[in-house]
Write a structure and sequence with these properties.
By secondary structure, the chain is an alpha+beta fold. The protein has 2 domains: about 130 residues, Ubiquitin-like (UB roll) (Roll); about 120 residues, no CATH class. About 30% of the residues lie in helices and about 15% in strands. The protein contains 7 helices and 11 strands. The chain has a 5-stranded mixed sheet with strand order 2-1-5-3-4, with helices on both faces. Strands 8-9-10-11 form a 4-stranded antiparallel sheet. It has a two-stranded antiparallel sheet with strand order 6-7. Strand 10 and strand 11 form a beta hairpin. Helix 2 packs antiparallel against helix 3. The protein is globular and about 65 Å long. Bound molecules: iron/sulfur cluster (SF4) and FE2/S2 (inorganic) cluster. FE2/S2 (inorganic) cluster binds next to loops.
């Protein structure tokens, strides 16, 4: 188990972890916008930059993305050097230019002393910081219904040809992982709308709650070889049924 030092705090962390995970374990906060524990790190936002060194580097430091840099025995990490702070400020200044009205970006920028961007404000209002979490979670689920399209200031997340995506199953993974709530959807007892596509909802056969879309149940039943009936009961009712069984068996809490 490698032992490293982060801002003077000594921490042991599992082999194969990245510096961001070690910092969290040590209670050191590093801002990270494109990282999510459910996904492989990507290193896209560059907000998590830190300085790293070893004793034998004789005072030489390297700036790296904490979410992508593997831990190693004896690694020394500094998260608040002038170079690191300046790098984060540039990233936040640019993000504030792209998303000047996005509360998450305003708050992070303010925490770094930036209240106004020094770049030209984006004339097109958007809350999308291009963190890629939505497209990566969609890929991770094996659906790939959306992707990044276009270049420069016009870059955005969209379905193919900006039409309702044929592969989308309406699972909401993209909307729920989005750190800025940029992805719009509506969900009622009967239908869900997202990416211009409309889905029929599946109701729990026990409580009647609309819990997932019919397309979602079909997709996961087919892909995972799970009986379709498994999806006809919502998670809450499944948990309650299991708790009732344990209670009857006398093994409950
Ligand atoms: S829509 Fe949300 S999750 Fe997707 S890239 Fe934009 S900010 Fe990130
Ligand atoms: S969180 Fe590390 S680059 Fe985005």
């Amino acid at each position: 188990m490698p032992r490293l030092t982060i801002d003077g705090k000594v921490v042991d962390v599992r082999e194969g972890a990245y510096v961001l995970e070690a910092a969290r374990k040590a209670g050191v906060e590093i801002p990270a916008l494109c990282n999510h524990e459910a996904l492989e790190p990507w290193g896209g936002c560059r907000l998590c930059m830190v300085d790293v060194t070893f004793e034998h580097w004789d005072g030489w430091y390297k700036a790296v993305a904490a979410c992508l840099y593997p831990v190693a025995e004896g690694l020394i990490v500094e998260t608040r050097t002038e170079r690191v702070t300046n790098a984060r400020k540039v990233v936040l200044d640019l993000l504030l230019a792209r998303c000047p009205d996005t509360p998450l970006i305003q708050r992070l920028a303010e925490e770094h002393g930036i209240t106004q961007t020094s770049f030209a404000r984006n004339p097109e209002q958007t809350d999308c910081i291009l963190c890629g979490l939505c497209t990566r979670v969609c890929d991770h689920l094996g659906i790939s219904a959306i992707s990044m399209v276009d270049r420069g200031i016009g870059r955005e997340v969209a379905p193919p040809f900006k039409e309702p995506p044929p592969d989308c199953i309406g699972c909401l993974a993209c909307a729920e992982i989005c750190p800025t709530d940029h992805i719009d959807y509506t969900s009622t007892h009967s239908r869900r709308e997202i990416w211009g596509k409309s889905f029929e909802m599946l109701r729990c056969k026990t409580c009647g709650k609309a819990h997932i879309t019919v397309a979602q149940a079909d997709f996961f039943a087919d892909r995972n070889g799970v009986p379709r009936s498994y999806f006809e009961t919502c998670d809450d009712c499944k948990r309650k049924a299991h708790a009732d069984i344990f209670e009857r068996l006398g093994t409950g809490p």
